[in-house]
């Protein structure tokens, strides 16, 4: 008993001399080991890459967020590029329905601020003590990737909403007093993030879809144009074009899968499944969103990207022309959610003889009867070309027969499944777009001859007639972007940053869009839910809403 009391006394005394418990506050402080926090979850490079993966996942959702127009909203829906074909009475066909409660707009706002949240967590946690970095270079690459995504997301917001609140660090407690920064302040903030990114991102990667230095410079060129610093925009684009940022060049010869098929072109090759990535030989690819067929995580919704369904017509359902309603490889399974405007389908192709981007292999314009049919006393044989005179009802040319851009679909689907067997990757940035950004910067400087030279690099690949300096206007560049990048570029953001949503829609949009759009639509409405939650300060709505 005496020995036990002595041992107890020694142990008790030892408790009071243990190091680290210098006060009641220290004694009561808690170090959680049963759950992940920002202090213990990000200690190695692989943990940071896991969080960055959430932004790549969100990027996927920008191309596969829903089965319909939601997939393509940012690509120019309701403007000069495309409109909703299946109904008239919807927002963006009808701009009077574009308001602070509209869902596509609200979703875009939310997912971009979600990406900013992830990016800020990466940037902040990477600079804390205790992270096990193999080198300062490794640390800066991770921070650069976070800053790239933050810049990308702010660009996506500012181009169409104007100034946004600049959030530089993770929010650790509720905040209800956000105030909008100016557009110029936001573009400067984006520029600073991208300057860091272009100096610290790697030149190359073995992982398809990971951002590299050229992606930062491509986006930086656009931001410098927004700041009207055309010399810096030209310098950023030139670093991508001249090899400083890596070996990029336009693809000019047939390549990749199906390259031996006759009657096709290198432009057609660019959009075949398996051909999109730099790592597989496509030196035009700068940044590519990744999708995989029948792989967990390989798609976001519905088991496949829905680009073919959204953008292709539904001629396989055209019973009037003898079709049975069963989709096949040769027809695809388009649903005609979004139809190109007449400007896209016809207007931009005037005086472009020989342009491979408008050959039948690139834009399918010829459709044939699937059976012998007689309509209104006129007989047609199976295999005959469907004439324009046959398309008498509105839905005939709005739903069933209109030009199908072949970049959005295929005649050979995986497992012969025309509903979900087209699972391509998606270009976020490719070199043709960099040339067009540099041309825009040259135009801003008044150097129209150099702008024409850059446009002609693209035209030469397309085997299209070349232009001269006198042809170069911002309208011409925007039309060339449609010829080259239709359905790839975020057209909504391009027109938004130029303040031309109203002007281009008024001149080239769908008839209902032309008649309903107003000048204030050059800026989109801030979602009302954002304004309602910000009870501690005024979050100003854009004029007109």
Mind explaining what this structure looks like?
This protein is mainly alpha-helical. 40% of the residues lie in helices and 5% in strands. The protein contains 19 helices and 8 strands. A two-stranded antiparallel ribbon has the order 1-3. α7 (213-226) packs parallel to α13 (431-445). It is globular and about 80 Å long.
- Kindly state the percentage of residues in helix: 40-55%
**Shape, principal axes of CA atoms:** globular
Calculate the mean pLDDT score and round it: 93
E-strand count: 8
How are strands sequenced across the largest beta sheet? 1-3
- Order of SSEs: HHHEHHHHHHEHEHEEEHEEHHHHHHH
- Alpha carbon gap, first and last residue: 84 Å
Backbone CA Rg: 27 Å
Biggest sheet record: 2 strands, antiparallel
Brief descriptors of the model:
single chain; 545 residues; mainly alpha; two-stranded antiparallel ribbon; 5% strand
Care to give the gist of this entry?
Helices cover 40% and strands 5% of the residues. With 545 residues, it is mainly alpha-helical. The strands form four sheets. It has a two-stranded antiparallel ribbon with strand order 1-3.
Produce the secondary structure layout.
Blueprint: H1 2-15, H2 24-28, H3 45-61, E1 82-84, H4 103-125, H5 136-161, H6 183-200, H7 213-226, H8 230-241, H9 266-269, E2 285-289, H10 307-311, E3 338-340, H11 342-345, E4 363-364, E5 373-375, E6 378-380, H12 394-400, E7 404-405, E8 426-430, H13 431-445, H14 448-461, H15 474-485, H16 491-498, H17 501-508, H18 511-516, H19 528-533
Antiparallel strand pairs: 1-3, 2-8, 4-7, 5-6
Helix pairs in contact: 3-4, 3-5, 4-5, 5-6, 5-16, 6-7, 7-8, 7-13, 8-13, 13-14, 13-15
């Amino acid at each position: 008993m005496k020995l036990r009391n002595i041992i107890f006394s020694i142990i008790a005394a030892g408790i009071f001399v243990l190091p680290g418990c210098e006060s009641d506050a220290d004694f009561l402080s808690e170090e959680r080991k049963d759950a992940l926090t920002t202090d213990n979850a990000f200690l190695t490079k692989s943990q940071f890459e896991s969080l960055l993966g959430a932004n790549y996942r969100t990027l996927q959702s920008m191309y596969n967020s829903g089965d319909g127009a939601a997939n393509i909203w940012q690509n120019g829906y309701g403007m000069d590029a495309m409109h909703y074909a299946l109904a008239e009475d919807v927002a963006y066909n009808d701009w009077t329905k574009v308001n602070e409660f509209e869902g596509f707009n609200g979703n875009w706002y939310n997912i971009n601020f979600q990406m900013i949240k992830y990016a800020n967590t990466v940037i902040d946690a990477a600079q804390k003590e205790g992270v096990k970095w193999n080198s300062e270079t490794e640390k800066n690459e991770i921070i650069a990737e976070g800053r790239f995504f933050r810049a990308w997301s702010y660009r996506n917001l500012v181009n169409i909403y104007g100034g946004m609140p600049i959030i530089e660090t993770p929010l650790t407690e509720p905040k209800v007093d956000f105030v909008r920064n100016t557009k110029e302040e936001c573009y400067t903030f984006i520029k600073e993030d991208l300057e860091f990114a272009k100096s610290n991102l790697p030149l190359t990667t073995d992982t398809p879809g990971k951002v590299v230095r050229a992606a930062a410079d491509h986006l930086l060129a656009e931001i410098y144009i927004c700041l009207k610093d055309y010399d810096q925009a030209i310098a950023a684009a030139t670093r991508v074009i001249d090899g400083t940022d890596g070996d990029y060049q336009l693809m000019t010869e047939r390549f990749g899968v199906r390259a031996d098929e006759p009657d096709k072109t290198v432009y057609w090759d660019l959009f075949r499944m398996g051909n999109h990535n730099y790592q597989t030989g496509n030196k035009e690819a700068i940044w590519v969103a990744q999708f995989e067929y029948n792989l967990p995580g390989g798609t976001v919704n519905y088991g496949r990207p829905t680009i073919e369904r959204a953008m292709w017509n539904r001629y396989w359902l055209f019973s009037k022309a003898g079709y049975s309603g069963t989709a096949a490889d040769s027809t695809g399974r388009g649903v005609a959610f979004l139809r190109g405007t007449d400007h896209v389908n016809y207007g931009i192709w005037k005086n472009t003889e020989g342009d491979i981007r408008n050959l039948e292999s690139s834009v399918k314009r010829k459709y044939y009867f699937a059976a012998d049919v007689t309509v209104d006393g006129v007989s047609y044989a199976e295999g005959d070309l469907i004439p324009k005179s046959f398309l008498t009802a509105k839905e005939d040319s709005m739903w069933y027969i209109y030009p199908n851009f072949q970049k959005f679909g295929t005649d050979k689907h995986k497992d012969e499944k025309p509903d979900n067997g087209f699972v391509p990757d998606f270009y976020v940035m490719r070199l043709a777009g960099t040339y067009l950004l540099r041309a825009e910067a040259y135009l801003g400087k008044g150097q129209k001859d150099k702008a024409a030279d850059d446009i002609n690099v693209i035209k030469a690949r397309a085997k299209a007639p070349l232009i001269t300096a006198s042809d170069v206007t911002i309208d011409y560049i925007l039309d060339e972007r449609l010829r080259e990048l239709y359905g790839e570029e975020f057209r909504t953001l391009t027109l938004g940053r130029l303040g031309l949503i109203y002007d281009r829609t008024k001149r080239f949009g769908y008839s209902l869009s032309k008649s309903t759009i107003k000048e204030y639509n050059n800026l989109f409405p801030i979602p009302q839910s954002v304004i309602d939650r910000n009870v501690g300060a005024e979050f100003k709505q854009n004029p007109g809403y």
